[in-house]
Amino acid sequence: MSTQHKPESLDLEFLKTASNKRFAIVYSEWNSEIIDRLVKGAFSFFREIGISDEKIELLSVPGSFELVYGCSKISSTKKFDAIIAIGSIIRGETSHFKFISQSVFDGIKDLNLRVTCPIVLCLLTDDNYQQSIERSGGKHGNKGYDCAAAAAKMSLI
Ligand code: DLZ
Fold first, then answer.
1. What pLDDT score was predicted for residue 92?
2. Which candidate in 40, 44, 111, 126 could, as Cys together with 132 as Cys, close a disulfide (CB 3.0–4.6 Å)?
C-alpha cells in the first residue's frame, strides 16, 4: 500500500472511452530535457488509450510563468476537451522559484474556475535536476503520463 494519495491503478478500459476526445499540451521551454521526458510520458499514455501523437495539439511558451496565458489562449479556441500544462521549475539561488511556482498554481486554478475546458497541471517544482529526472521517467514514475491520465478522466466529466 503506497503512502501517497494517488490512484493505485488506472482504469484503462474506462479511460479508453476518452479516445475520441481532443487534447492539447501547453509546455514551457525552460529545462527542455525534463519537459521532453514529460511530454513523451503524456504521449505514451495517450497511445495506450488509442490516441496517436499527431492528434495532440502542442503549444510552447517561453517559461512556466507563461503557461497560464498559453492555456487561457488555447482554451479560448473551444477546440479541446482537456488541456495539460507542462512545466519544470528547479530551485535556484534566487526567490524566483517560489514566486513563479505559486503564480502558476494560482493561475491555473483560477483559469479552471473561469473556463469550461479542464486544465490539468503537470508542474515539477524540484530542489535539483536529479529530482526532476526521477519524476519524469525515473524512479518516481513519469508525471507527464499521470497527468495525461488525469486529463483523460477530466475530459469525461
Ligand atoms: C526566470 C525563470 C527562472 C529563474 N527559472 C525558471 C524555471 O526553473 N523554470 C521555468 O519554467 N521558468 C523559469 N524562469 C522563466 C519564467 O517562467 C518566465 O518565462 C520569465 O520570468 C519571463 O516571464
1. 87
2. 126
| Separation CA 29–CA 18 (nearest Å) | 28
CB of residue 98 inside a 6 A radius of ligand 1: no
Mean pLDDT over each residue of the chain, to the nearest integer:
94
Max intra-chain CA distance, the chain: 45
Q: What is the pTM of this model?
A: 0.95
Work out which ligand 1 atom sits closest to the CA atom of 90. 8
Q: Which residue ranges form the domains of the chain, and what is each CATH number?
A: 14-155 (3.40.50.960)
The residues of the chain scoring below 70 in pLDDT are 1-8
Pocket test for ligand 1, best of 35, 67, 69, 89 (most atoms within 8 A of CB): 89
Residue 98's pLDDT is what? 94
To the query of whether residue 96 is one of the catalytic residues in this protein, the response is: yes
Q: Which residues pair with 86 in a beta bridge?
A: 27, 122
Does 60 sit in the ligand 1 pocket, CB within 6 Å? no
